[in-house]
Amino acid sequence: MNRMVTDTAHHYRNAEWKEADNASPRAVPEPWAMDHARGLPQGSRVLDPGAAIVRHALAFAEPGHEVTAPDAAEAATAAIAAAAFARAVPVQVVQAPMTNLPFAATSFDQVLAWNVVCHGGEAVVRRALSEVARVLRPGGSFMETLLSARRLPVEQVKAPCREISRNTRVFDGPGDKRHPHYFCTAANLLSLLRGVEILALFDRPHEKPGSSPWHLLAERLA
């Protein structure tokens, strides 16, 4: 079960982002990401792939960082552009998938991929991480989350699922998990990374118990 499994979750999210607003939990920046942002040099070039509805893009841009926010969902890019205009914060908005980032090598000082790289099979995850490494400058930092395998039993209680490729599940019923999602152990995650030094790796709950994703902080090697 190692056939190519593509990222299709943005089709679901596109409809969701049309209805979402700043009251959505997905619009609230994560404290861990913002703590790291405060330590970045002024004017850092930050990439926020899968930026969704302005969860981190504006929060990174307001202190003066140069933020680029690509997303595969058209509704997400529209929401980011509108919010940036309303708050008079410059953010470069691009409609593009995480597996084909339209940027030159070593273009960014920081990449933040929050709740996005898990959307697809292992080949998609590997390709997205390769793109991150390509656009990140040597010495630049990379933060991401990926679904922990510890979360899988919690999700299986909610809805039946089937494994469609290695570590990749599709769940029955409503929600974005009817699209492929990748659940991994720490060993799986580390095996996918190339050219980076791991600075931190842990899993902890987000909104509720059992919702644990991996949190990774890494630095691009020369």
From TrEMBL:
Enumerate the GO terms in the molecular function aspect.
Answer: S-adenosylmethionine-dependent methyltransferase activity
What is any Pfam family matched here? Methyltransf_11
User: What range(s) does the Methyltransferase type domain occupy?
Assistant: 47-142
Please report the name of this protein according to its UniProt entry.
Methyltransferase type 11 domain-containing protein
Q: Which organism is it from?
A: Pseudogemmobacter humi
